[in-house]
Amino acid sequence: MKGASSKNKVNLIRNGQQFIDANLELISQAKNFIFLHTYIFEEDQITNKILEELKYAAKRDVHVFIIFDAFGSQDFRDKKIEELNRNKIYFSFFTPFLSFQNYNRRLHQKVLIIDNLHCLLGGINYAKKFNLPENNYPWLDYACIVSGEEVYNTFLKVLPLYKKSFPSHKKLFNSFRAPQVDLTNVSMVKTNLNDWTRNKKQIFKSYLSAISKSESEIYLLATYFIPGKKLLNALKKAKKRNINIHLIFGSKSDHPVTRIIENYFYNWYLSNGIKIYEYDKSIIHGKLAMIDNHWITIGSYNHNFISRYANLEINYEILDKSFGKIIKKEFENIINNSTEIKEGSLQSKKNRILVGAFYFLTNLVTWLSLIFLLKRKKD
Predict the structure, then answer these.
(1) pTM for the complete prediction?
(2) How many whole angstroms separate alpha carbon 69 and alpha carbon 351?
(3) Where are the beta strands (DSSP E) in the chain?
(4) Contacts 24+ apart (CB under 8 A), 232-237
(5) Integer Cα distance of 259 and 253 in angstroms
(6) Which residues, 6 or more positions from 214, have their beta carbon under 8 angstroms from its beta carbon?
(7) How far apart are the first and last CA of the chain?
(8) Cβ atoms of residues 209 and 305 within 8 Å
(9) What angle do helix axes 17-29 and 47-59 make, rounded to 10 degrees?
(10) Residue range 289-318: average pLDDT?
(11) Taking the CB of residue 250, how many other CB atoms lie within 10 A of it?
(12) Angle at 208 between CA 72 and CA 216, to 5 degrees
């Protein structure tokens, strides 16, 4: 895995109380600086605990910088922003969503960096309705904490975002150096970005590369899964090499149209010998994959044109057999609580035509929005 670092410790974080506690613990350990950016952050009794912990950090003279996506976090109040500023916490929105030029380019990353020592990174947004909903399971979602030398590489990858959002602090950011790391762990970790307007396609390419090199088994937690031809062809070629492929979908979704479009491919998966499952305990939001029990990726990237061409996305790519055992148990547990989809349970031909129409219209809207990104890229 070219460009990966080896001195790292990796811990899996599940959505729910574990995710909230991980944020609070990491923030409480900060001594120098905190970077936090995310797509959705809603004010509630869960997230306010995190904001309070950030205030305590600022009182300890920790430099705290926060960036929320202006569309995903559009309900974050001006009053709360003023309160953060009074507590010496620096805040910025990523691209106003009412800007016609920028509405289709979103900050979809979820990253918390502490002193270049620890990084919490994944697909989990910040809101009680996702993390600890009333009378329901948390959304099925994941993040991981990486501690070690790769954290500084992650910092360098996201640094341009902070320099643009807080230009008067560039000199300060340049002083945040890589600390000495004394770890004997052998977890290989690499930070991958997808940012099409800046020619960053690392996450997408890492998936294709890992699938093409697969030798035994592929597990993929598939949320908002609307794959393009390259990914479908890679899966098809893998299956021809007798690779066991498991795709896990959610029977529930916060985007019903996307869920309908996902069904459009069911016939194709089954006709190519790919196993598909539907999980119904809660909404699936995780972006997690494992190949051959040792290659793992966790992050914000979804397999659709929005993630591939419009959003800013970030994933960790991990090579670790020990961590792979943990992820394997996680996938086995999900499958044991899911229903395998057989050919007889598929939709009628009439319904598949309707689903195909949804798929066509969605792609048309996506491509029309990308025209504005193309224009801005040329500009």
Answers:
(1) 0.92
(2) 36
(3) 8-14, 33-38, 63-69, 89-94, 111-114, 118-122, 142-148, 188-195, 200-201, 217-221, 244-250, 275-279, 288-291, 295-299, 313-319, 338-340
(4) 232/265, 232/268, 234/207, 234/208, 235/211, 235/272, 235/274, 236/272, 237/212
(5) 6
(6) 238, 241, 243, 291, 292
(7) 35
(8) no
(9) 10
(10) 95
(11) 26
(12) 115
Contacts of 187 (CB under 8 A, 6+ apart): 6, 8, 9, 10, 148, 318, 319, 320, 322, 323
d(CA 294, CA 299): 17
Residue position matching structure tokens 């993630």:
307
Structure tokens at 167: 């230009």
**DSSP summary character for residue 314:** E
Q: Which run of H or of E encompasses 19?
A: helix 17-29
State both tokens at 183.
């770890």
- Pairing mode of beta strands 288-291, 275-279: unpaired
Which span out of 4-8, 234-238, 305-309 was modeled with the highest average pLDDT? Answer: 234-238
Q: What is the pLDDT of residues 32-58, one digit of tens each?
A: 999 999 999 999 999 999 999 999 999
Residues 115 and 30: their CA atoms lie apart, in Å, by 6
HSE at residue 225, side-chain half, CA atoms within 13 A, is 25
For 99-155, the DSSP string reads: -TTTTT--B---EEEETTTEEEEES--B-HHHHS-TTSPPPB-EEEEEEETHHHHHH
